[in-house]
Amino acid sequence: MKYLCLVYIDEKKLAALSHADSQALDNVSLGYDRRLRDSGHFIAAQALEPVKAGAVLRRQGGQVSVTDGPFAETNEQVGGFILIDVKDREEAIRLAANIPVLDFGRVEVRPVRELVEVN
Question: What CATH architecture applies to the domain 2-111?
């Protein structure tokens, strides 16, 4: 069963880290990804650039509008994700509880809904 661990971070907290502390967090995070890979749970993971680099698209009345980030006044933004393969929700939560950047925000754990095209 696939679960998405959606990582929300406080970008201000990350930006306040020294270069050495930021690199140490990257190293710990990559090490965690490696442990997930070695245990057979890892599917994919990526960090995201800051929210100011993104855009939100909406369709209204047949027209697409684009809004540059940041998109909402909030302390936490989506900072990345880890996609894992586990036996159940409890295992997904157990693995997500060890994601290193949890100290800088929160992690939402959601099952992936596999879409199937029917003709």
Answer: 2-Layer Sandwich (3.30)
The domain segmentation of the chain, as residue ranges, is 2-111
CB 34 within 8 A of CB 16: no
Query: What is the rounded CA–CA span in Å between residue 104 and residue 5?
Result: 15
In Å, what is the CA distance from 38 to each residue of 7, 34, 42, 97?
Answer: 21, 6, 8, 18
* 118 in Cβ contact with 73 (< 8 Å): no
pLDDT tens string 29-50: 999 999 999 999 999 999 999 8
Amino acid at 67: T
Instruction: Give backbone dihedrals phi and psi of 73, rounded to 5 degrees, phi first.
Output: -80, 95
Closest CA to 69 of 39, 49, 92: 49
- Exposed e or buried b per residue across 9-42, where buried means at least 16 C-beta atoms within 10 angstroms of its C-beta: bbbeebeeeeeeeeeebeeebeebbeebeeeebb
Whole-prediction pTM: 0.88
